[in-house]
């Protein structure tokens, strides 16, 4: 080969290696399509969501906590009205106006009118579609409260919670002050709630102080009925043996003896018992006499 051509070839290689070159890679269209789809989905989801605004955050019908917050505020307001003596019913718009909640949405209003207020145990719906507070006891003054306590005492129903009386009776504190001599207050040890009883003065008895001291000194909290009965038997006292619920005595059933069945002979044709009949020659024999 010509040495001049070889020299030109080597010089061309060196020059090509010395000059920089940029290669253009092919673009992957699949990745570009996936990214465009993701962007379009995110933009559409953002556009469909309602914008949280200072003007529409109360009218949004999304969370149930907002609905029940509106309902709780209505119930508290209706209870306060009843305790102050306002017992006239209100429409839904009037209730929302008095509770400063006129900006609630239509869905919340519909929920209040069809479900929440209809099924709430503290709210009563009248025939004309208005709402009023529903107390535990229907008492209006001190006379009705005293009458209710007397009925509970006569029927043996026990006492009444002070919370229920405060919720049901308008101006409760004033009525309780006037009836201080007619009511007994007892604190329940389990939850420390006060219970009201009627003070029946006809049932008061004068008890000797020594008996009261002995009664209060005797502690039977940790003893059951069996231990108390055992203690009384040791002291020679048998007055408790006939008290308390008795177990019903089940009568014993008598065993029935099964008699052997005797098969009785048939009683038909007893008048022909001594007559022999033979069908070979068609003869009847009776007492040695044969008849053809």
TrEMBL record:
Protein family according to the UniProt entry: Belongs to the TFIIE beta subunit family.
Description of how the protein assembles with itself and partners: Tetramer of two alpha and two beta chains.
Keywords: DNA-binding, Nucleus, Transcription, Transcription regulation
Record's keyword annotation contains RNA-binding: no
Major place of residence: nucleus
UniProt lineage: Eukaryota, Metazoa, Ecdysozoa, Arthropoda, Hexapoda
Name the record gives this protein: Transcription initiation factor IIE subunit beta
A Pfam family matched in the record: TFA2_Winged_2
């Amino acid at each position: 080969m010509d040495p001049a051509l070889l020299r030109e070839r080597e010089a061309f290689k060196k020059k090509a290696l010395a000059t920089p070159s940029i290669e253009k890679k092919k673009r992957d269209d699949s990745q570009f399509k996936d990214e465009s789809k993701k962007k379009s989905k995110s933009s559409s989801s953002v556009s469909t969501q309602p914008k949280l605004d200072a003007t529409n955050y109360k009218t949004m019908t999304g969370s149930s906590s907002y609905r029940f917050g509106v309902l709780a505020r209505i119930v508290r307001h209706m209870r306060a009205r009843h305790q102050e003596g306002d017992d006239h019913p209100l429409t839904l718009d009037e209730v929302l106006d008095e509770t400063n909640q006129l900006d609630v949405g239509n869905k919340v209003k519909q929920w209040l009118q069809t479900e929440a207020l209809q099924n709430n145990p503290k709210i009563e719906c009248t025939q004309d579609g208005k709402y009023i507070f529903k107390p535990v006891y229907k008492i209006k003054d001190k006379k009705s409260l005293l009458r209710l306590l007397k009925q509970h005492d006569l029927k043996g129903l026990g006492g009444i919670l002070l919370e229920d009386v405060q919720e049901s009776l308008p101006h409760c504190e004033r009525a309780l002050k006037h009836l201080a001599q007619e009511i007994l207050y007892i604190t329940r040890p389990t939850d420390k709630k006060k219970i009201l009883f009627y003070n029946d003065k006809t049932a008061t008895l004068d008890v000797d102080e020594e008996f009261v001291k002995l009664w209060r000194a005797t502690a039977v909290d940790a003893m059951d009925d069996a231990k108390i009965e055992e203690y009384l038997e040791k002291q020679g006292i048998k007055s408790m043996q006939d008290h308390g619920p008795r177990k019903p005595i089940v009568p014993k059933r008598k065993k029935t003896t099964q008699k052997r069945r005797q098969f009785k002979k048939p009683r038909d044709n007893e008048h022909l018992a001594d007559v022999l009949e033979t069908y070979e020659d068609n003869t009847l024999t009776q007492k040695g006499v044969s008849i053809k």
